[in-house]
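ok so i was messing around last nite and threw this chain in just to see what happens. nothing serious, just curious
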Amino acid sequence: MAIETPEYTVLRKVKNIEIRKYQEYIQAEVEVVEEDYKSAIEKGFGILAGYIFGNNISKQKINMTSPVKAETSERVPMTSPVKVSGNGKYIIAFVMPKKYSIDTLPEPFNKAIHFKKIDPHRIAAVRFSGFFNQQNIEKNITILKEWLNKENIKTEGEYVIAGYNPPWVPWFLARNEAMIQIKE
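result:
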């Protein structure tokens, strides 16, 4: 069975970088405080997985989707090189299956979980495999940032890190992405 992902159209592709147009979707998100992306994803994943596995008021199970998304929730000016380490706040998010609306999603027991409607938008994404560690994340954010600067593409918001595979997928087959929203 294929895992549902948000619907998008690739508008432009250059090697492992894509410009995409996403359709509207809803995500469940939780804010966590951790040292790095990997720790934040592990902590946030546990909270959100509990919710979709039935830890909600209606005890309803929700199908797993991908990717699991992580972004810093502290507004820090971007510099070069990109540094995304240290104790910080992260927002970890699961995209909800498209059959749900905010009104039809089961209410979570954990009040730290919030739902957010994401309007149609364009993003730039760089795809990478390998270990989901700080060095690999920083390297790929820098690659994407440099390409966007070279192409004179303006962005907004924070860089988001997306992981598409369960933890047992070998590192060399893992699909990860660094992405950022493009100004319309």
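not much to say yet. The chain has one domain: 8-182.
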